[in-house]
């Protein structure tokens, strides 16, 4: 029973667009859990209990594999194959200022529940560090923050350490700019070790590359039609995967040819004109592929129980289509967003207008998206046409 349940769960994860690395780690963890259950002779009714999970964690010497086991228990509960999932861990609440920041991130920055949990993972130890050394948050110095990261990041990779620095940097910026608790902007002083690799510039696709992408799309399954509509929204409107997930049926006006984006990063709602091709792609999905559901979100999962898709499912579907036509492994949904921005620049749209259409909160964010277009530069500087 347990082996079949694991196989069903992994197939569901694939259909939901989970990344290959997540699938591999979950499969390994769940296979270890199967061995543990079999060796201990744990009866069916006791497999998905808190006591069993704790015994497994103790036997393994860590709790890194717990999310996979908890996820499997929730899946089986939703399928009505077990009576109840493993109870959730009680999240320890932080002091008010920390909790208010997490609420701010969820509402103003549209961070996912997973991102909020990750931010909490660095804020909680940071709070503990300040309490242990009797340091008031309003009087913290950059030297103390550096000392905290020396202690906290000692067991993490360079990539993970960079992510945690970014999360704490955001909290410090909030304390300085929004709450006025800090008298000095410490966020800009939080830096990691020097790295000497050049940052990769944003990637955008040329017309012939977009033609090859659309030519390689298929329309035989519900998933194909869903991906087709997603790609159109990413390419013709420059939408982020998160924004594509948040579109509801109420946001679409086929009569006006208009899409309302009510919830955007940085809280910049906007109405965008819908190109005819994008309208047709969404209509094809609505008529031929979208499951019947009372849910108002436009894009739903492909299997029962139907739920709104997650950003990683959008990213995975688009990336898979790009790989099918020979795009490199690093190709992503954001390449289509970069292409949209570049197309606006080439058509003469001002940088400020591009900023508004992309939903950026600063002009500097928009600048990073744009390459210098060589033919445009030569027309402006030398009055030449290539």
3D architecture notes:
The chain has 386 residues and is mainly alpha-helical. It has three domains: 77 residues; 94 residues, Tyrosine recombinase, N-terminal domain (DNA polymerase, domain 1, Orthogonal Bundle); 173 residues, hpI Integrase, Chain A (Orthogonal Bundle), CATH 1.10.443. Helix content is 56%, strand content 3%. The protein has 17 helices and three strands. It has a three-stranded antiparallel β-sheet with strand order 1-2-3, with no helix packed on it. A hairpin with a 4-residue loop joins strand 1 and strand 2. Helix 2 crosses helix 4 and helix 10 runs antiparallel to helix 12. The model has no long low-confidence stretch (mean pLDDT 86).
Element string (H = helix, E = strand): HHHHHHHHHHHEEEHHHHHH
Could you say how many structural domains there are in total? 3
Beta-strand proportion: under 5%
Count of alpha and pi helical runs: 17
Main beta sheet:
3 strands, antiparallel
Which second-level CATH architecture of the largest domain applies?
Answer: Orthogonal Bundle
Major beta sheet, strand line-up: 1-2-3
CATH homologous superfamily assignment of the largest domain:
Intergrase catalytic core
Distance between the termini: 66 Å
Overall radius of gyration: 24 Å
CATH class of the largest domain: Mainly Alpha
| Helix percentage | 55-70%
Low-confidence stretches: none
Calculate the mean pLDDT score and round it.
Answer: 86
